[in-house]
Write the structure tokens for this entry.
Amino acid sequence: MQYRRKLDLEIEELRPDLNTLRHACREIRSSTKFKQTLILILSIGNTLNNSTFRGNAQGFTLDSLLKLKETRTPRGGKECPTLLHYVAKVLLKKDPNLALFIDEMPNVEAAARVSVQTVLHNVQTLVSGMAAVNEELGMVRKSKTEGDRFVDVMEVRGLGL
């Protein structure tokens, strides 16, 4: 009964972070500028790796994007010291609006501040707690007497997460 009583409060505390993450994911998936930017990055990577086994790749991992700022260009000089600078330069040359892809994703910055590990832990805690409540309710249903509203009060329908 204690768990059921505090469940709604815990869900309301978790809801803003879940909504922020949900909105950011939708924005990332629907952003055409971001997709075009990723296509350009893949194209540059395939060009650089053309003569290796990594050439003609169909995609890349998100961790690879972090390597853009670590990869130094041999003849870039001060204008273009890293591969990230080169990508930005190509983006600006191809279509200056592509470099502003973040404008299509206003929730991404807020989502970056959300601790995904904490949210996952909290959701998992809610799920395991609900499993325990449902197990308990299963046992109570077997011995339910007429007029007993315990099961009706304790059941949770449509959490709306």
